[in-house]
Amino acid sequence: MKYLSQFLTKICLAVAFIILMIGLFANLSSNRFGDETTLLIKIIASLLILVSLLPLIKKSVYPKIEQLGNKRKIQIIFGIFLLIISIQLLTRHFFIPSISRDPFRIRTQAIWLAQGKVEWLDYFKRYPNNVPIAIVLSKALKIGWFFKLSTQTIITSLSLISLDIVAIIAVIMTYLASKKTSIALIISCLLLINPFMYTYNLRVFYSDVPAMLGFGSVMLGLSYLYRRPNARFRWLIGATVLIISVVTQLIKPNFIIIVPAIILWLLITALSADKRSQLNRPLIICSASLILLVSLTMPASKIISQQANFEPDSNQQFPTTHWIAMGLNPDTIGTYSQADCDAMDKETTKSGHEKLAMRTIKERLKNHGLIGMVKQISLKYHILLDMGHLNHKYVDGFSDAPAWYQKHAGQYQIANNLLISTLFCLIFSLALLGIKQLWQMEKSFLSLLPVLIIDGLLTFHALFWEVNDRYGEAVIIPILYLSAIGLKSYLAPEKHTFIAQHDNRPARKRLWLPLYFVGLAMLCYLPLTMKVPTTLTVVGQFSNWGARYGNLGTMIAANQKLTQTFTTRTDYQIFQLAILPHQQTGELILEVNGKVLVTKEITAENTKKLITIKQKLPAGNYRLIWHNKSSQENCVYLQNGADYPLSQESILELKDKQYFVFKFANRKS
Predict the structure, then answer these.
(1) 471, 460 in Cβ contact below 8 A?
(2) CA angle centred on 620, ends 618 and 622, rounded to 5°
(3) Angle between helical axes of 409-440 and 36-56 (0-180°, round to 10)
(4) Which residues lie below 8 Å from residue 342, measured CB to CB, with a gap of 6+?
(5) Between 338-345 and 350-385, two packed helices, what is the crossing angle to 10 degrees?
(6) Up-side HSE of residue 84: CA atoms within 13 Å toward CB?
(7) Rounded distance, CA 525 to CA 305, Å?
(8) Distance from C-alpha of 537 to C-alpha of 99, rounded to nearest angstrom
């Protein structure tokens, strides 16, 4: 049995090593904006930083940190978190994101539910998996309103608090992994300078941060019960883990992989025949309860949805096999495919959906073949672990942003991409060192759980499901846990470990320092010289449900004008206004600083969803006017904010807060 336990452990570690190697390569090659030359420069710069930074930390930084007392180190960690929170608050104050697509629809629905409205957007009939998160958010809004908080404050606070709890759990887990406060302090510094803490996860309330929180809470709670089975608060900790796990499963269905991960972890630990690794009673009870409750949450979510007056429509909902077929799509490499959805829309019944999906799966499996499937799976791992694009998710510009950002948005986005991908190269490199260290350890059962979570979640998506780089960030805490093990093995190797054999070489600080600054200079050079190869949306109001999901327009009276004001802080080259083709007719008038800049007549022959104006659009105070010049009512594409401000000002002539859907952008450089 002992040998079986060791064999299973090695298999899990080997799979994790391969996955993390792909993750390292994915972040080295992450290059959203550049061409092949800039990619090569970025790879060289990242490698120079990687090979020089760790020796510099080992020879110069780490010894000085070690000289500090534990109390002082903890104080510094607290100071780092205060600084993180301060930056987050400033970011949220000055950068007001225009949230689009799924998170916007969920936010709108949650506000309606909290207000007592029982009408559901058509979107949820297609994607009923997002019904629970809308219900959970509506409950949070009710609590916040009870304390007289605004809707915007509540949702912003939820994003900030949940993200910071994830960071706190990550730092605690890195301490438990390394048993050294110095390692936890270094990981805290990595979080401080990582855009991961200030972009997508802070701006958008969605299911990704709850997923990180769920996996992290399970790791922390079970680690605590494993180490201290007789602790005074063991039952409270167990109950907290169970509650968080159930809520996470409601919000994020793929959290279900925690069930096989825990079962396999318990099995390998039990087979070890090691008295020091024997499972204790509180741990077994908590694990068994978690497995049972998470498994029961899936049918329970249907009951909760029904209580909120949601009625699923099997003819609109896509079957599970549709997402499996989408994951096999070679054209999109398993990511979301609008073409697949359009093909599914042509089938109007549940049986039709299922037959089409099964036929597509068989065709794609046949076309892929064995080699094609290996390539598809490898590329899907690559997408899941490419963290360089996270800061762009679900944000179509900002309703307001500082002048310096509006002027240099392209360079800012490039710098963000370079920084986050380079930092994750470092994190993945350390995690690989951690896997290597665990491979050489005879007993690593506590560290096996994060490995199983990484293997389980990412392999599930790579083999069976549609992928997105958002899905990969759910395992950030397990990856940081392994990084802490790797960092400790490098900075403070124990006797007879694989690092110790190479630790007697003389310090080469004079060599590493120039290499580090060359790599850093190359990374700083890229944002200053790279040209953004796409049209980049900077400011505007692009939050909308979409005509497909119920936004059919607002009727306005004959000869009525609608006016919305806003301010831009730099010059732009492109303005776009969303309209309803064939239905919306009238005149668009765009004024700046009291002068008419553009007038454009829109007729029923128009087939485009966006009116595009390409000319110099100077900074200033704008008035966007839509004039219904006809002698009868006409339909206008507007968006209701549902008690949440979507732009600097709402339309002046309407009592309920409604907004045009528009954006300012710059052409590719």
Answers:
(1) no
(2) 100
(3) 50
(4) none
(5) 170
(6) 27
(7) 52
(8) 13
Positions of the chain with pLDDT under 70: 32-35, 229, 231, 273-278, 442-443, 494-510, 528, 530-535, 547-548, 550-551, 668-669
**136 in Cβ contact with 252 (< 8 Å):** no
Q: Which of 153, 149, 148, 121 is nearest to 134 (CA)?
A: 121
C-alpha 588/C-alpha 578 separation (Å) is 11
pLDDT tens digits for range 437-485: 998 876 677 889 999 999 999 999 999 899 988 899 999 999 999 999 9
Token match 């607002």: residue? 554
Element (H, E) at 563: strand 561-568
- What is d(CA 157, CA 209) in angstroms, rounded to the nearest whole number? 13
Structure tokens of 353? Answer: 């959906």
Structure tokens at 554: 């607002």
For residues 317 and 141, give the distance between their C-alpha atoms in angstroms, rounded to a whole number: 28
Among residues 579, 580, 586, which one has the least CA distance to residue 602? 586
b/e 329-354 (16+ beta carbons within 10 angstroms → b): beebbbbebeebeeebeebeeeeebb
* CA pair distance 476, 214, nearest whole angstrom: 11
Q: What is the pLDDT of residues 225-263, one digit of tens each?
A: 887 767 677 888 889 999 999 999 999 999 999 999 999
- Phi, psi dihedral angles at 586 (to 5 degrees): 155, -160
**Sign of the dihedral through C-alpha 208, 212, 218, 221:** negative
**In the 8-state DSSP scheme, what is residue 435?**
H
Q: By C-alpha distance, which of 477, 522, 487 is closest to 62? A: 487
H or E element that contains 266: helix 258-271
How big is the chain by its Cα radius of gyration, in Å? 27
Gap between the Cα atoms of 206 and 200, Å rounded: 10
Q: How far apart are CA 174 and CA 447, in angstroms?
A: 11
Tokens linked to 198 = 């200030």
Q: Is the distance from CB of 34 to CB of 526 less than 8 angstroms?
A: yes
AA identity, residue 340? D
Instruction: Say what the pTM is.
Output: 0.91
How many angstroms separate the CA atoms of 589 and 622, rounded? 10
Q: CB burial class (10 A; 0-12, 13-18, 19+) of residue 128?
A: buried
Q: How many CA atoms lie within 13 A of 564 on its CB side?
A: 24
Burial state string for 194-224 with b = 16 or more CB within 10 A and e = fewer than 16: bbbbbbbbbbbbbbbbbbbbbbbbbbbbbbb
- Domains of the chain by range and CATH? 1-34+87-99+150-312+386-491 (no CATH), 537-665 (2.60.120)
Number of Cα atoms under 13 Å in the Cβ half of residue 121: 32
Please count the residues of the chain: 669
- Residue pair 630/603 in contact by the 8 Å Cβ criterion: no
Instruction: Determine how β-strand 572-578 pairs with β-strand 561-568.
Output: unpaired
Whole-number Å distance between alpha carbons of 644 and 526: 38
Report CA-CA distances (Å) from 271 to 7, 227, 277: 11, 18, 10
Contacts of 91 (CB under 8 A, 6+ apart): 198, 202
